[in-house]
């Protein structure tokens, strides 16, 4: 049988909540009076992480994807980590990759446990300001594209590498020969659709900035690159940039923010690329009329680069970022159907930029790492999550079970199955790389 709920003084492995509002509590004879009631809340940050075991070093410039209740983080950068750091003595890549991390980490969002994966195959050397998304036709595969090695800009890439998350095996995607290949850049933005189309926009060589648009059709065998647009100086073309973000809606690509090493782009007029017509134009957005001088100067997000976004259908969220002077901790929502901005009341627990973000199919946003202090040039390895949409009742029920049973991962899987826990929930308690050892 399950153990009784832990006392509130015991820290749960699923993390601690960040909130200043009063939490509702229910008292009963069965549970300790200190036991908090599980309560689903949207736009509410929780910290995820284990207080035992290995964990990744603080980093920036990495990327993450979500798959089956876990996030996977590839790459990253931290110049403050010493070459003889004792935690990295057994890392076969660190001596050559420093100050970049040639690593793949898995975080179980249910247990809060990190696991450093044993990578195999053709692992990319470009480990910072690359992109990473789930394969639109095979969600168990992470697609890594672009990026740079160190020194930045000297070793860039235009290769797409597939990482099979179950086996942690990397392999380059061989594409059809042609003239549609993009340039080797870093800091570009990508987005995919359900048909298997992979779009990339912008980026930098380290010396020049670009705003070309290319598309990779992953449904073809072999996949085919197509050049959709190259800047030529005509009217309405956007400024070249890097570390921007993309969203896709109604056959149009919308560019959010970005900039250069010396500039940051604004959000009032969004550079918009019509995929069918293959042309650029600007889309005017609407300011948040409810925003106050305390949280927004004009009802729009401040200009920024190195931020993160999450998209669910026609809703897009912007978190954090940097304008060259300030690090942002705000959160904004854009309704693509009306082009209306809204400044959310939620604030990042830790203002960051060059962080990584992903969102699950059911709307759980996860944010990991980033630069957290400009003057000290420090980075973090903290992980936060928040629900951006209402998930299924089943997901809420599983979250509640884990809330009341923080030690559930130590219960033998056969016992959990006998108690009626669904097998897919039991599977979420194990690391994909250690499941045989854990369950065997």
Based on CA atoms alone, the radius of gyration comes out at 22 Å
Measured distance between first and last alpha carbons? 20 Å
The biggest beta sheet is recorded as: 5 strands, mixed
**Structural class of the secondary elements?**
mainly beta
Total beta strands: 27
Overall shape: it is: globular
Strand order of the largest sheet: 6-10-9-8-7
Short description:
With 440 residues, this protein is mainly beta. It is 7% helix and 32% strand.
What tags apply to this protein structure?
440 residues, five-stranded mixed beta sheet, 5 helices, 32% strand, globular
What does this structure look like?
The chain is mainly beta and 440 residues long. The radius of gyration is 22 Å and the shape is globular. Mean pLDDT is 90; it is low at 3-33 and 434-440. Strand 25 (356-359) and strand 26 (364-373) form a beta hairpin. The chain is built from 5 helices and 27 strands. It has helices at residues 94-97, 393-404, 413-418, 423-427, 435-439, and strands at 46-48, 63-67, 70-74, 104-108, 114-116, 120-121, 131-135, 138-145, 160-164, 169-172, 189-192, 197-204, 209-217, 224-229, 245-249, 252-256, 259-260, 263-264, 269-274, 279-284, 308-312, 315-319, 331-335, 340-343, 356-359, 364-373, 378-387. The protein starts with 45 loop residues before the first strand and ends with a helix. It has a 5-stranded mixed sheet, with no helix packed on it.
């Amino acid at each position: 049988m399950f153990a009784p709920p832990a006392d509130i003084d015991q820290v749960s492995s699923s993390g601690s909540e960040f909130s200043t509002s009063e939490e509702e509590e229910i008292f009963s004879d069965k549970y300790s009076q200190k036991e908090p009631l599980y309560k689903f809340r949207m736009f509410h940050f929780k910290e995820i992480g284990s207080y035992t075991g290995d964990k990744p070093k603080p980093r920036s410039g990495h990327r993450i994807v979500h798959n089956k209740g876990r996030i996977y983080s590839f790459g990253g950068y931290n110049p403050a980590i010493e070459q003889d750091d004792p935690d990295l003595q057994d890392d076969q890549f660190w001596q050559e990759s420093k100050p970049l991390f040639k690593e793949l980490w898995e975080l179980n969002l249910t247990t809060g446990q990190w696991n450093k994966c044993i990578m195999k195959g053709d692992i990319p050397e470009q480990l910072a300001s690359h992109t990473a998304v789930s394969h639109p036709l095979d969600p168990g595969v992470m697609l890594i594209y672009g990026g740079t090695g160190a020194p930045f800009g000297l070793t860039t890439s235009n290769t797409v590498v597939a990482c099979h998350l179950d086996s942690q095996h990397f392999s380059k995607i061989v594409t059809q020969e042609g003239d549609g290949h993009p340039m080797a850049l870093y800091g570009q933005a990508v987005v995919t659709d359900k048909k298997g189309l992979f779009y990339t926009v912008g980026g930098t060589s380290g010396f020049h900035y670009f705003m070309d648009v290319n598309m990779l059709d992953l449904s073809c065998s072999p996949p085919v690159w197509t050049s959709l647009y190259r800047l030529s100086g005509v009217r309405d073309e956007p400024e070249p940039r890097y570390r921007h973000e993309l969203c896709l809606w109604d056959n149009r690509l919308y560019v959010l923010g970005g900039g250069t090493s010396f500039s940051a782009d604004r959000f009032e007029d969004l550079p918009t690329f019509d995929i069918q017509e293959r042309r650029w134009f600007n889309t005017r957005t609407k300011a948040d009329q409810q925003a106050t001088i305390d949280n927004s100067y004009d009802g729009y997000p401040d200009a920024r680069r190195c931020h993160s976004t999450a998209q669910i259908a026609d809703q897009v969220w912007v978190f954090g970022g940097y304008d060259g002077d300030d690090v942002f901790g705000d959160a904004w929502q854009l309704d693509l159907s009306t082009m209306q901005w809204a400044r959310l009341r939620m604030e990042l627990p830790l203002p960051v930029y060059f962080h990584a973000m992903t969102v699950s199919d059911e709307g759980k946003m996860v944010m990991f790492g980033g630069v957290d202090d400009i003057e000290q040039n420090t980075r973090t390895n903290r992980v936060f999550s928040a629900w951006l949409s209402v998930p299924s009742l089943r997901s809420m029920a599983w979250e509640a079970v884990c809330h009341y049973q923080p030690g559930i991962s130590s219960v033998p899987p056969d016992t959990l199955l006998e108690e009626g826990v669904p097998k897919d929930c039991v599977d979420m308690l194990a690391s994909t790389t250690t499941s045989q050892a854990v369950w065997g």
